[in-house]
Amino acid sequence: MAEIRVLRIGHRPDRDKRVTTHTALTARALGAKGVLVDSKDPKLEENVRSVVDRFGGDFSIETGVQWRKVLREFDGKIAHLTMYGMRVDEAVPLLQDEDLLVVVGAEKVPAEIYQLATVNVSVGNQPHSEIAALAIFMDRLTAGQALYQERGGRMKVIPNDRGKTVIDSSK
Predict the structure, then answer these.
(1) What is the 3-state secondary structure (H, E, C) of 124-137?
(2) Which residues of the chain have pLDDT under 70?
(3) pLDDT at position 1
(4) Bridge partners for 13 per DSSP
């Protein structure tokens, strides 16, 4: 499969730290190779890198990017997640087998994004969380392949129906 990256637009470090952290962690857990964030936020970078260091995987984060430049220079397809776009099940087949940039907005995104996107993708037609939209989109796009993928980290969660089993190979 081609590489998937997520572009988070409208991040406000003082207000959106948990939501943008969860956006990045969702992207990572569901198969993206990295996240780009428009506002500079060293603490966000530190938090996400800490998870990658502990749980492994090939995932990068960069904050303070110029989103217009990223969109214009991206060599692949661009999917903008919005409730006004094409249904997710119709859009996914159009986005396979090529590098993909998934745009996730925090608030109202500039109209320009709708024009720069290859496809505007609707994950439902009701207001809901951008994190939920990203999770559903990524799961459909990757057919769930990333959910239990081994990432080679020192921390490993062992799924079970009761209790918490976490193996820390550094101990």
Answers:
(1) CCCCCCHHHHHHHH
(2) 1
(3) 62
(4) none
Q: Which of 94, 101, 112, 109 lies closest to 79 in space, CA to CA?
A: 101
Distance CA 151, CA 167 (A): 13
Domains of the chain: 4-168 (3.40.1280.10)
In one-letter notation, the amino acid at residue 122 is S
CB-based contacts of 123, cutoff 8 Å, min separation 6? 81, 83, 88, 132, 133, 136, 137
Instruction: Compute the distance between CA of residue 148 and CA of residue 85 in angstroms, rounded to an integer.
Output: 30
Give how far Cα 142 sits from Cα of 2, 31, 39, 85, 90, Å.
Answer: 10, 7, 28, 20, 14
Token pair, residue 163, equals 């209790």
Look at the alpha carbons of 98, 66, 62, 39 in this order and tell me if their dihedral is positive or negative: negative
Q: How high is the pLDDT of residue 91?
A: 96
Residue 124 is encoded by which pair of tokens? Answer: 């439902």
Distance CA 6, CA 135 (A): 12
pLDDT of residue 83: 86
